[in-house]
Amino acid sequence: MQIRHESSRKETAQMNTEELRENFLIETLFTPNQIEWVYSHYDRVLTGGAMPLERTIALETHDALKAAYFLDRRELGIINVGGKGRIMADGVMFELDKLGCLYLGKGTQNVIFSSQNVENPARFFLLSSPAHHTYPNRAFTKEEASPVNLGAVETANQRTIYKYIHEGGIQSCQLVMGLTVLQTGSVWNTMPAHTHDRRMEAYCYFDVPENHGVLHLMGEPTQTRHLWVANHQAILSPPWSIHSGCGTSSYSFIWGMAGENKDFTDMDLLPIPALR
């Protein structure tokens, strides 16, 4: 488990490319037969990935959590961006196709990840936050997420949004999770940009074609910075930072948040001419 402390606005504005990548980019999410974790001090959110191949992977606790088991005082959101997979949670089996989501609540003790096909393994993106209450474990397919089509060809942001863990979907203590699929020919996400001081956010980019990338924009609205992001990489976004991107091709991304509330629409919108 890698631990990352928060960076102030002033620190971030003075960072070079390598420093920005070290603090805000997660380059390796999916390693065969193990779980990768990054513990961020932004809202104490854990971002990670699990890719089981020929054997199963158990969700284990870490010393940094000082917990009897991983979900002793936490909740966990899981979205599969790979092949068909299975998750056993306290003896109950959940099957997740690509873009399927599973929420595991506080108190779930035994969690096992597996793939149905080693040649096309599951890739489970993981997001965990502290929890004060136990909500039931629940899975959603992408069809159950009430897909919404937004954007336009003219603004290169035609997209389908799938909301899984939120006030109107799977219940949680503070996690909010879903994903966005950009249509062919669309490359912009989250523009006009926004911030939300009430919570941090993580992006996981996937289905980025080979030899392509996403130029992710971050930083204060008047001190923007950029990071080139590849397929299956993630970004940690502080509450005060914008989080937007433009790809060299269409792509998809998971968005996950934790903080003061679970209102998906809680955004402080920024007019494009105000960005610097």
TrEMBL record:
Pathway: Glycan metabolism; pectin degradation; 2-dehydro-3-deoxy-D-gluconate from pectin: step 4/5. GO terms for molecular function: 4-deoxy-L-threo-5-hexosulose-uronate ketol-isomerase activity. Its cofactor is Zn(2+). InterPro entries: KduI (IPR007045), KduI/IolB_isomerase (IPR021120), KduI_N (IPR027449), RmlC-like_jellyroll (IPR014710), RmlC_Cupin_sf (IPR011051). It catalyses: 5-dehydro-4-deoxy-D-glucuronate = 3-deoxy-D-glycero-2,5-hexodiulosonate. Keywords: Isomerase, Metal-binding, Zinc. The keyword Isomerase applies. Binds 1 zinc ion per subunit. It is an enzyme of class 5 (isomerase). Its EC number is 5.3.1.17. NCBIfam families: PRK00924.1. Belongs to the KduI family. HAMAP family: KduI. Catalyzes the isomerization of 5-dehydro-4-deoxy-D-glucuronate to 3-deoxy-D-glycero-2,5-hexodiulosonate. This is 4-deoxy-L-threo-5-hexosulose-uronate ketol-isomerase. The gene is kduI.
